[in-house]
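Q: What structure does this chain adopt?
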Amino acid sequence: MPETQSDRPLKPGDRAPNVVLDAITRQGKIAIDDFRGQKPVLVGLFRGLHCPFCRRQIAAMANLAGELQQKGIESLTVVNTPTERARLYFRYHPLPNLLAASDPDRISHRAFGLPNVEFTESETAWPYKVGLNVVNSMRLDMPELPQPMDPMAATEYLDKADGYEFDDDDRRMIAKGEGQLVGEFLLDRDGFVRWCFTEVADDGRHMFGVPAPQEVMSAASHMTA
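A:
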């Protein structure tokens, strides 16, 4: 299947492209078109499991999967981690109701228009380039952190707290997509975006965060109203 690429993040009203990926939590393939004409689906496109923020974003999305299913909405989590590596992780860190797919080449991220940000010394042209001076000036205030920290320090602290052990697959994913931006897209049963939350929006103010559960469920309620 030819690769689809959007030059901007998809927004409400856009038709989502079909993407076919290897399943993680079951055998075989998973495609966006599996849901089209059948059920609405919340699609979460994340960095690899090497990213501590994405591990938490994935868990937050999985926590809502049961409530969404009650509304007839499925959830699909896509991670920038090779299949076997991801299966090993979820074997030791199972999440109920998780339907996940592997996208080590970030095909789905490009198809949904999520850029891979280039880190520079001081040049920022959001969302394609960001200076390390900007990154280092950010402060993340999360309940799991002992104090507000810059993203690099927070990453190191959370990885240590999680006991996450990196392997060669993780290092390859970081080398290719460390700056990959993430997002969640709620698609109706016809495959059109009805709601979204991305790190691209508002000049990156949502980076490393998750949408409020109330916001997701409100969007889901409007979908089924």
